[in-house]
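Entry 14. Two folds queued back to back today. First construct below, sequence then structure tokens.
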Amino acid sequence: MSEVNSIERPAAPLQGITQLEIDQRVYDLYDEYCHGRIDRREFLKRASALSIVGGSGLMMAQALLPRYAQAQTVSFTDSRIKATYVTYPSPGGNSGTMRGYLVQPTGTGPFPAVLVIHENRGLNPYIEDVARRAALEGFLALAPDGLFPVGGYPGNDDDGRTLQASLDQGKLRIDLLNSARFVKGHKLSSGKLGVTGFCFGGGVTNFLAAQLGSEMQAGAPYYGVAAATDTVAGIKAPLLCHLAENDANINNTYPAFEAALKAAQVPHEIHRYPGTQHGFHNNSTPRYNEAAARLSWERTVAHFRKHLS
């Protein structure tokens, strides 16, 4: 397990409060909120009740709410890529059909395929931006919207989280499994498949590695729950796992997972990034850590280039 030896102070975030100025207790409450264990009202109420020297828990809580429009890094109209929404069959899923955001580099291809899996709130603008970033690196990127069977991402994370929780979770995973096979078999795909995802999507990346076996050539989960140890023998794709330092709920699932990966002789690397919070790659809130996000993405791109070439 390797670490970032020198994490820079992140750039001042969009809300004017830096990551290092936010009390860890507010981060912990946000983790409860973003994983659906408390609602927004309760999150803000509990944060405002905290006694914080020289600061306001409520202001810190409000600063953590995402600002997607300001966080875009690759324009929708960037001339180096072509993006479109596509629908495709998804037998056994929540509605039998799925929709995703497909982004291709310029050129005729074929391109290595990368599936980009969202968090627990559907296909929000941050995940679409990640798909565009992947396309800029030369990959055919598909970001599926698991909420499509219930109308798609509703435009805000609170409603998206509620909608995603309402779905049949087994069928949702089938929808994402079908999405992986769709992009792998796309006419612009080289037939090599990499998968990455964030939070819920990171857990699904591990799940897909076990389910797809030799159909998947590389995985790069971000702070996603580990796959069940009794499924690890099915994993054939080399894994590059990114973990935050302050993320006990996720990190506690990894010791047994890593032991099972070693026993099954699955090539893997697990990186924990010091000073980071769950969600450190998401640049729409102060949980974002610029140095860790940049390094982890560079590693992910190199991992995919190595195994999808």
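Second construct, same run, same settings:
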Amino acid sequence: MQRRRIVITGLGAVSPLGNTPEESWQNARAGKSGIGLITMIDTSIIANKIAGEVKGFDADALLGHREARRTDRVTQFAMVAARQALEDSGLTITPHNRDDVGCVIGSGVGGIASLDEAVRTFIDKGHKAISPFSINKILIDSSSGRVSMDLGLRGPNFCLTTACATGNNCIGEAAEVIRRGQAKVMLAGATEAAIVAICMAGFNNMRALSLRNDEPEKASRPFDADRDGFVAGEGAAVLVLEDLEHALARGARIYAEVLGYGHTSDAYHPTAPMETGEGAARAMTMALEEARLKPEDLDYINAHGTGTPLNDTSETTAIKLALGEVAYSIPISSTKSMTGHLLGAAGAIEAIFSIMAIRDNFIPPTINLDTPDPSCDLNYTPNVGVARRVDVVMSNGFGFGGHNATIILGRYTDDGYA
């Protein structure tokens, strides 16, 4: 029996590189950095002063004052990205189709800014000062719930949290929902708004963040010998996934196809990846097997590429373990060099960049890769993007807790790859 094919028909995003998918992608293509000095919080109490902030985001203007007051920034990002994606897809939600359309919107930490605010309010002013909206603002599933309510989606609605693998897992699991026949369309993606002092302090005390405060645009340096940690970012990305027959029947524009999905666990360490790369390599192999592809079929890899010493070396090892000698001939890049690390939302925005790479036949660069690390010896597309035919892209996402999630996206053709 032929496997149900899943295609992508709509995109939405707000990121440190722009408040639409197209703006974000054009800046990534050009190798521009979205990282700068933090403006949202008082950095005098923390060591890290830099991040990839979303700029010019006016929740009141975009969502209305009432909705903005009742939601955390993390949910606001998700709602705006979801609205963009649905509009881009050309799909209108009606009483006749709303039961067939669902969403899975994940996050790593959810409304942590609202949690931080509520704790401070409770300590300073007591229990009666806590807002009745505080719980809904804090809950990690509030974004998926609010998107469902905002757009009138009555199909499956849930939230996944797998740390920095969340975005990839949400896309992969949304595809599985459609394949099971539980929905015809799913909005899938992730959101994060964790530029909060307590988060930044925690990551910094783990020695995970870059402290290159005097050179924000040069701080995110995946695969470079002088990398000293990741740079936190924020934002959201949402994709419209659709059953191919449903998409064709309504004449939808098709961006790409979801070809493969693999996810595994390291079962190794709370925060560190396996040095051998075994768990990550198995996720890549699983995705290739589901896609019925060979390593040589890959045209580009959007790496997890965080800029931490452990991750970049481990991911390089994992890619070589999964792909063998072919790994040396496949262009790779880390767009986190420009966006920073959007944590739970990373895989979702990187899926959009992967789709745009297919659309434009263009591989975005890894900026700030000035001194190659001998332990990272693959082709990471240093500093300048490359025009090249791109039909199949692998995108990796790995998270604290040992989560590994890989998706493979391909150019849509009538006959398909499977």
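Quick look at the second one. The mean pLDDT is 96. Residues 73-89 form the longest helix (17 residues).
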